[in-house]
Write a structure and sequence with these properties.
This protein is of the alpha+beta class. It is built from 19 helices and 26 strands. It is globular, with a radius of gyration of 26 Å.
């Protein structure tokens, strides 16, 4: 007898063959809201430093999910950037009309598994959405199956004012695109695929009704009453649940795989294992190995909790977030964020990674933060991964000099952006040196990596070279960087130069250990030269602000006093370089290139912190939070930053693919951490800071970052500063915007600040650099 399951799979096969009985031209599609309140994946143990089956955690699950606005959003399977789902919502038919999660509900995000102090023990979530008219409450419990490529969702529906009929509304974005999908629906499964990416959504009980339809006018709800059971293009799958009189619970699993049978089998097996056991395995309860075990392995976590202001909730969540955002095929591949910035207006018809990619700078921050937590394995895996993204003869399309690291790449090393950022070439050397000095990277291994990776990088920092990759056909002459750390302009950058000098000094140590004394001398001599010219290249004494003495954000030539114009970016006007400030000069102190009381450093701070400055140029903003005493500082990337929502319309950054003059970058929590590190360095000039100084740093900078985090304990890229037209999301001041949440770097900076406070010295400070330049 032909079963409904067989019919659903047969429909998928028919569509794969090209039939599209209800097909139409795919409608334009976007990604989902990027202000996530939850992201998750299973903990997988390494086997000999890589991910493969057979270790303590068994099979390797390669599924990641995210949550925003109370609903399941981008869900990835395969490589970490390969989204298969845009979102899954529940539409509820009530006696007085249709209500939909997100638009018609409020939401609350909680961790499902916490310790006695309320600190999260795994990235499993309980999401509660409440109808604004009080007609129903929906509770969803979401986590992955650590033994399969599957996502588990338990849904409890509570009817408060009469019976309600809920319907799951799933919008697939198979193969990381929002079009070209083929889908089929039956009462036993909702299925979709594109290419070799398949999903199957199954429930513990059959759906009352099911449909597959084409997305019409961007309205995923238009097909709720569709009678069609197959569709091709930009599609919507719907599964109606039985009417709920009072309360009912339903279990669902979404299985993924390279074919329909595998995806269906993964979903079925997760449901058979059951909610309680899948969750217990995910958490690592009892003898099972999971997230509890990872947290227990972090030797420094207990004292970092003590240094926090919230009892350790955010640092424990940060440990989870940093580890979640690692690919499970390429061990050590740490991405920037499990989100697409401003995703709800970003075109999804073409595959893109968003922030789900490797930037060596963000990567370094994350690896250093994981090391600060006492994770001895992931930073090593990260270091071993780095050759994957270093440019050389094997880099596809490269015809130029190598040694530098790709600006941005897929986790498999596929080049995506190919600008040269010299800090991203220095930081891998700095990471290797740090792991060596911690005793985690054996010296023999360091020497091997010196010849193959670290020496080519250091040589590029000395000599530069001719770049010929993709669009990039330029000659780079350090320390002039083609792009500074915000990837927008070239020139002499204090933050980039700080990393280059630090990288070369520690490269000297590594070269000496490897027996290459000539290179060691060259690297140190070059670092001395770069350091000797820092002020001459990047400090103006004739600026238009204050007494005229301060660090420029960027200088495009050898003269910091000539007021040359900085290139126009992100829709903003071009301005004289002496009008554009940022806090990048503080990296000189962090790494040990300059003392915290250096005259040029001290002279720049009042200009940077001037809150009376015109908003266009202003960098610092102070925040007050309801129910919290005091004010807390935050800083923008730089004055005249256009990487953010429009002040005139409230629209997202780059909406419609166009730059607009009203775009404005907001405050980034990263810089609160950077300033906290500077204040610690200042307090440490005469030795370990006293208890009062440490308390002030904790009460001001640590507390501020904790307040910037959302209810899911995720730290955003940017927070709303109250300037200009509010966006449609109606942010409160200090609340994360639609830029990207969680930003791994934000979590990393917070973790590193706690480690620095706990140690009484800056975690990222490099002793040989400090000894050479800032005694």
């Amino acid at each position: 007898m032909t079963t409904l399951k067989t019919l659903a799979l047969a429909s998928a096969a028919m569509l794969a063959a090209g039939a599209a009985p209800h097909g139409a031209q795919a409608a334009p599609t976007t990604w989902a809201y990027s202000a996530k309140t939850g992201v998750g994946a299973s903990y997988e143990a390494y086997v000999d430093g890589v991910y493969k089956a057979g270790g303590k955690t068994g099979a390797v699950s390669k599924v990641w999910f995210s949550i925003a606005d109370g609903v399941l959003t981008e869900t990835m399977y395969g490589l970490i950037h390969e989204a298969q789902i845009k979102q899954m919502r529940i539409a509820v038919q009530t006696a007085t009309g249709l209500a939909v999660e997100g638009a018609d509900t409020t939401s609350k995000t909680e961790y499902l598994h916490v310790d006695a102090a309320g600190r999260p023990l795994s990235p499993a979530y309980k999401i509660t959405t409440t109808d604004k008219q009080g007609r129903f409450v929906i509770e969803k419990r979401i986590f992955t199956d650590p033994d399969r490529n599957a996502l588990f969702v338990r849904v409890t529906v509570k009817a408060l004012k009469g019976p309600v009929t809920p319907t799951l509304v799933l919008e697939p974005h198979m193969a990381n695109t929002g079009g070209g999908d083929a889908g089929a629906a039956s009462t036993t499964a909702l299925t979709a695929f594109e290419g070799r990416a398949f999903l199957s959504l199954k429930g513990s009980k059959p759906f009352a009704k099911a449909s597959a339809s084409i997305l019409k006018d961007g309205d995923a709800l238009a097909g709720l009453k569709a009678a069609t059971t197959s569709a091709k293009g930009a599609i919507v799958l719907a599964g109606q649940l039985p009417t709920v009189a009072k309360e009912a619970t339903f279990d669902f699993a979404i299985g993924f795989g390279p074919n329909a049978k595998t995806a269906d089998g993964a979903a079925a097996a997760s449901l058979k294992t059951g909610y309680a056991e899948v969750l217990a395995r995910y958490n690592g309860e009892g003898a099972r190995v999971g997230w509890e075990d990872y947290l227990a392995s972090l030797t420094e976590l207990p004292r970092l909790r003590e240094a926090s202001e919230d009892g350790g909730k955010l640092v424990q969540a940060s440990a989870l977030m940093l580890k979640v955002q690692e690919d499970r095929t390429h061990a050590g591949a740490l991405i920037a964020s499990l989100s697409n910035p401003w995703g709800d207006t970003v075109d999804a018809t073409q595959s893109s990674t968003g922030y789900k990619a490797v930037w060596p700078r963000d990567f370094y921050q994350c690896a250093m933060a994981l090391a600060a937590l006492g994770d001895k394995q992931t930073p090593l895996a990260a270091f071993h991964y780095l050759p994957t993204v270093q440019v050389g003869p094997k880099t596809p399309g490269n015809k130029g000099d190598g040694g530098w690291f790709l600006q941005k790449s897929h986790v498999d090393g596929t080049p995506e952006w190919v600008g040269v950022q010299l800090d991203q070439t220095a930081m891998p050397i700095m990471l290797g040196w740090k792991l060596w000095k911690l005793g985690w990277l054996p010296e023999a291994e360091l020497k091997a990596y010196y010849g193959t990776m670290l020496k080519p990088a250091a040589d590029f920092l000395v000599r530069g070279g001719k770049v010929d990759l993709g669009w990039n056909h330029n000659t780079v002459t350090p320390p002039f960087t083609q792009q500074e750390r915000w990837e927008e302009q070239g020139g002499y950058s204090p933050s980039t130069t700080a990393a280059v000098i630090a990288g070369l000094v520690v490269a000297g140590d590594v070269a000496e250990a490897a027996g290459d004394k000539a290179s060691a001398e060259l690297y140190r001599k070059t670092a001395d030269d770069y350091s000797s010219k820092v002020e001459a290249r990047m400090v103006t004494t004739k600026g238009s602000l204050g007494d005229g003495h301060y660090y420029l954000r960027l200088n495009s030539d050898q003269d910091p006093d000539n007021k040359s114009t900085v290139e126009k970016r992100n829709g903003q006007q071009a301005v004289p370089e002496d009008r554009m400030l940022d806090a990048g000069f503080l990296e000189l102190v962090r790494y040990g290139v300059r003392r915290a009381d250096d005259p040029a450093i001290v002279a720049t701070l009042p200009k940077l912190d001037d809150e009376a400055m015109e908003d266009l140029y202003r960098v610092r903003y102070s925040f007050k939070f309801p129910g919290v005493d005091g004010t807390f500082p935050g800083w923008r990337r730089y004055g005249v930053d256009g990487y953010g929502e429009d002040t005139k319309t409230g629209a997202n950054y780059g909406a419609g693919g166009q730059m607009a003059p009203g775009q404005r970058g907001r405050v980034w929590p990263i810089f609160t951490g950077e300033r906290g590190h500077y204040e610690l360095a200042l307090a440490s000039l005469s030795g370990k800071p006293d208890a009062a100084a440490l308390k002030k740093i904790r009460d001001t900078y640590v507390k501020a970052i904790e307040l910037f985090a959302n209810e899911g304990l995720l730290i955003p890229e940017q927070v709303w500063d109250g300037v200009g037209q509010q966006s449609a999301h109606g942010y409160a001041r200090g609340e994360g915007t639609d830029s990207a949440t969680p930003l791994a770097w934000s979590h990393a900076e917070y973790v590193k600040l706690l480690r620095s406070v706990s140690d009484g010295q800056v975690w990222d400070n490099y002793a040989p650099v400090k000894a050479r330049f800032s005694r």
